[in-house]
Amino acid sequence: MDFSQLYTPGFKNRNKAHFAAIVNLALADDHISEEEKAFIDRLAIYLEIDPDEVAEIMESPDKYKGAPPADKNSRLERLYDLSRMVFADNIADDNEKKLLNKLVIGLGFDADSSDKVVEKALEMVAKGIDVDDFIETFEI
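Now predict its structure.
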C-alpha cells in the first residue's frame, strides 16, 4: 500500500480547509509577508498538501470549507496553528484578530467566549509556548 493511501479523503479535505483558513488569516491585511509565506510553506509540508494544491488554495482560499474537529485536542492544535499565523509577521492587527475570532467559532468554541479564546491563544503563542504545552494548559 502506498503511504499516501493511509489518509482518507475526509482527512485530506480537513487539512486543506485548515490550510485555507491559515491563508485567509495571512491575507487579512491584504499582504503576505515573507514570514507568513515561510510559515505557510512549512505548514503545507506538515499537512501534506502538494504544491499544485497549495497554489490553488492560495488563489481561492474561500472555496475551502471544513467541519470543526470533533475532539478537543484537534481543535486546540488548529487554534495553535491559526494563532501562530497571526504572529508570523510579529504583528497581530485588528483584521487578523477579527478573522481569528470567526475561525475560533468555526472550530467549535462557544461564541460567547470567543474573544477570551482568541486573547488567551494569542497571549500563549506570543510567549513562545509550543503546541504540546498549548494543548495541555489551554483553559478558558
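The domain at 8-137 is CATH 1.10.3680 (TerB-like).
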